[in-house]
Every structure is written in structure tokens, then in C-alpha cells.
Design brief:
Number of helices: 19
CATH class of the largest domain: Alpha Beta
CATH superfamily of the largest domain: P-loop containing nucleotide triphosphate hydrolases
Radius of gyration: 30 Å
Number of domains: 4
Strand order of the largest sheet: 2-1-3-4-5
Strand content: 5-15%
Number of strands: 14
CATH topology of the largest domain: Rossmann fold
Structural class: alpha/beta
Largest sheet: 5 strands, parallel
Length: 464
């Protein structure tokens, strides 16, 4: 909903204009003097100011100059009496959007108001696009040639032109937000805003205000009217990351906005409409959250119309060389190292690591290596995790007799899986099924141990 401020020292004008503009679907604030108007301008997210020129105290020209200091792009239409055209022209030179000479007809007024609001919307949109342009490409910077990524590209191409809600799942750091951006920028909403919110990054009270906005005075600290993400994303896409962390109370409000496309700001009673394409993501098993009573089943099915699962990086080994080289180029530009290079040996070593933190961990590893490497050549020792000793690995290779365990028909993946499973079982038995102790003895993290236990079907002691 567009928000407008009418300023005039004549009460009748304020009443008449408010009724007319509210019938047009505008949210209207009023002020009878420039001082009160300036306070509202500073406290409210406005789309337009309509002000009289002649007022006691701070007149229209003073208000114009003060408002432009606060927000240079905010459109201001001046209302002038007959014979004040020269002042109105001066106001135009000072940044007013237009002027109207009293008395004016309603059609002329509404035409100017809608034109000014549209102009302001375009200014904000151009600013947003300039900020977003570096993030945009056919698939928003997504990198990968693996079969799993090819399937994701196909899903994006199919779902992007629709208005279908999409649920993206996968471990942290797999690139779920990149997929959401790719859906938006390949849709017919690509010129409209793409707004993202991390539901896990805000406490419950702030999350509600962030999503739905709040009225001035709705709670302690709400000193201004603030439009929420649903309003800002109108006609565009809203990405809710970590949706599994949203409290049940807000899940109910989210379900309503999906079903009815209406909501109220916190502390407000005005029903607002919004047209938003909803994309959500989580690293949780939402179906399990539903079964445990932590997530609404009806909301789950509303969000999970189309599901895209992003596999962890350890299951997309073919993508690691592409990603590594991409990050090397990125940090070469950032650090001014035009000849920064990663060796084939380092690439090979990277493909052997588990990447529990996925793409984010790989990026951090390459950034660190770009800083620490000698002669701008990234070698295996530069990308080695702190908990991995190459000396122990070398000793093991020297003492290991492959002929003792290999049959002529056996495959490398079978050997690696069998060896890994045996080591996991032995470590768990020796640790008396205390996962933290077993993980420490294996030199891996507890969460990676749990992943591998699930992979090989190794049960906890309580489940045996």
C-alpha cells in the first residue's frame, strides 16, 4: 500500500483530501503545519508528500528543503494559491516534483499523485537493481557440472516462470539462496524486488516485525512506521531462509498470507494486500518437524509444492575443481594477485576432503590459502585442514601393502567404503558408543561422524 502525507493548515482541506485519497486505496497521514509534517517524514516510510505552499511557521518551501535533506528522492507536490506561480516555479527548481494551483479538480490531483508515486517507485527500483546487478546471471552465479546440479538447473528452468511456492532443502553452505535468486531472476518477476530474510537470525518478536512491518508505537522502540518485507517484496519474490526455525505463532500468520494474500502490520488493524512469490529453504527435515509438532502440517504442504534438494558438496565431487578455480579467480581480483594459481595436486587433495561446511567451507579454505601461499601458487599444504596431518598419511601409505587386501575384481569405491565402515564401527566400539570420543579418535567432527553412521546404517547403542 502506498503511503502519502497531506500537509495543510486548513482542517477542511485535510478532511476532504484524506477521504478522497483513502478511497483511492492510499494510506494517508495528515499534518496541519510544517513542523509536524517533518516529524512524520522522518518517522514514516512515505511514498509522497502533498503540501500547501503558504503555512504559518515552517512554510511549504522550508518543508521541501528540510524533507530533501532527509530523503532527496521523496516526491513532493506543492499546492499553491492563484498568484503564487513564481514561488511554485522556485519550488520546482528546489526539487519539488510538481505544483497544483488551488482550486484544482480531483482528476488532476489523482493523476499527479499516481505519476509521482510511480516515479518514486522507479527511482527506488533502479537503485535496487544497481545493488543487485553483480549478483545476477542466468543462474545467479551458480557453479557446477555434476549430474545433481544439472537436475537442479532443469528444475529452475521449469518452475521459474510459474508462481508456484518452492521449498529448497540441503545442508548449510550448499547454496540454497543462490537457487532462490536463480528462480526469481529467471521468472517474469525479475524486474521486481527480491527480498530475503533469515528466520534463524532474528528473535521471534523482531522476526514478526521484520516480515509484516509495524505501526508507530506498536511496541517499545517502535518509534516509526515501518513497512515489512512482505510489503517491500510486493509483485516480486520473498525468500525465507531457515523456515524451520519460524515459531508456530508466526507460522499461522504466514499461512494466512499465503491463503488470503492479506495481512496487518504489527500493532495495526488495516488489512493490507500483497502479491509475493514465496521461496523457502531449510537444513532441517521439515516432515520430521511436522511429526514432532514443531511445524504446521498445512503450512508444510503449502510451501512444499515443488521441492529442490541440494546435495552436499561431498556428493558432488565433480563440482569441486570448478568451484575451487572460481574462488581462486575471485580472490585473485580482490587481493590484486593477477597470477594467483591453484595446482592440480591441490585440486586433487580438495576432492578427497569431506567438506562438512560445504561450499562455504571451500570458499573460506581458498581465501585462506590465497593469503598464505608462497609465490601465488596454492599447493596441497595450503588447503590442508588443521586437523589433518600429511606426515601421518605419508607414513601410512609407506607401510600399507595393497596386495594384502585387494582382489583382482574389486573396485576402489568398494575398498574405501568397506575400510571406512570398519574404522567407524571399531571407533564406536572402542569409545563405547560415545560419539564425541569416537569422532575425536577418528580425527573428524561429531556431525560428520553422524552423517557417516547414517550412510552405513551404523546404529547408536540405544538403537541396537
Amino acid at each position: 500500500m502506498n503511503t502519502l502525507l497531506v500537509v495543510d493548515d486548513e482542517p477542511n482541506y485535510l478532511i476532504i483530501l484524506s477521504e478522497l485519497l483513502e478511497e483511492e486505496g492510499l494510506e494517508v497521514f495528515t499534518a496541519e503545519n510544517g513542523e509536524k509534517a517533518l516529524k512524520i517524514i522522518k518517522e514514516t516510510d512515505l511514498d509522497l508528500v502533498l503540501t500547501d505552499m503558504q503555512m504559518p511557521g515552517m512554510n511549504g518551501m522550508d518543508l521541501l528543503q528540510a524533507a530533501k535533506t532527509h530523503n532527496i528522492n521523496l516526491p513532493i507536490i506543492m499546492m499553491t494559491a492563484y498568484g503564487e506561480v513564481e514561488k511554485a516555479v522556485a519550488a520546482m527548481r528546489a526539487g519539488a516534483f510538481n505544483f497544483l494551483t488551488k482550486p484544482f479538480n480531483n482528476d488532476e490531483l489523482l493523476a499527479n499523485i499516481h505519476k509521482a508515486i510511480e516515479h518514486y517507485s522507479l527511482l527506488r527500483e533502479n537503485s535496487r537493481l544497481r545493488n543487485e546487478v553483480h549478483k545476477r546471471s542466468d543462474f545467479s552465479g551458480m557453479i557446477g557440472k555434476s549430474h545433481a546440479m544439472q537436475q537442479i538447473y532443469t528444475l529452475i528452468e521449469k518452475v521459474a516462470p510459474t508462481t508456484t511456492s518452492v521449498l529448497i532443502t540441503g545442508e548449510s553452505g550448499t547454496g540454497k539462496e543462490l537457487i532462490s535468486r536463480a528462480i526469481h531472476y529467471n521468472s517474469n518477476r525479475q524486474q521486481a524486488p527480491f527480498i530475503s530474510v533469515n528466520c534463524a537470525a532474528l528473535p521471534d518478536s523482531l522476526l514478526e516485525s521484520e516480515l509484516f512491518g509495524h505501526e508507530k508505537g506498536a511496541f517499545t522502540g517502535a518509534i516509526t512506521l515501518r513497512k515489512g518485507r512482505f510489503e517491500r517484496a510486493d509483485t516480486g519474490s520473498l525468500f525465507l531462509d531457515e523456515i524451520g526455525e519460524m515459531p508456530l505463532q508466526l507460522q499461522s500468520k504466514l499461512l494466512r498470507i499465503i491463503q488470503e494474500k492479506t495481512f496487518e502490520r504489527v500493532g495495526g488493524s488495516t488489512e493490507l494486500k500483497t502479491d509475493v512469490r514465496l521461496i523457502t529453504a531449510t537444513n532441517k527435515e521439515l516432515k520430521e518437524e511436522v511429526e514432532n509438532g514443531h511445524f504446521r502440517e498445512d503450512l508444510y504442504y503449502r510451501l512444499n509444492v515443488l521441492h529442490i534438494h541440494v546435495p552436499p558438496l561431498r556428493d558432488r565431487i565433480d563440482d569441486i575443481p570448478l568451484l575451487a578455480n572460481h574462488f581462486v579467480q575471485k580472490f585473485a581480483e580482490q587481493m590484486g594477485k593477477a597470477d594467483l594459481f591453484i595446482s592440480e595436486e591441490a585440486i586433487g587433495f580438495l576432492t578427497s576432503l569431506p567438506w562438512e561446511g560445504n561450499i562455504r567451507e571451500l570458499e573460506n579454505t581458498i581465501e585462506r590459502a590465497s593469503i598464505l601461499c608462497n609465490n601465488n601458487i596454492i599447493k596441497p599444504e595450503d588447503v590442508q585442514p588443521d586437523n589433518l596431518s600429511t606426515e601421518n598419511h605419508a607414513d601410512l601409505v609407506a607401510d600399507f601393502n595393497v596386495d594384502d587386501i585387494l582382489r583382482p575384481d574389486i573396485r576402489l569405491p568398494d575398498v574405501l567404503n568397506a575400510l571406512e565402515e570398519k574404522m567407524l564401527i571399531k571407533a564406536m566400539e572402542q569409545a563405547e558408543y560415545v560419539q564425541t570420543k569416537a569422532a575425536h579418535s577418528l580425527g573428524i567432527t561429531k556431525s560428520l561422524l553422524q552423517y557417516k553412521m547414517k550412510k552405513f546404517g551404523i546404529k547408536k547403542k540405544s538403537e541396537r
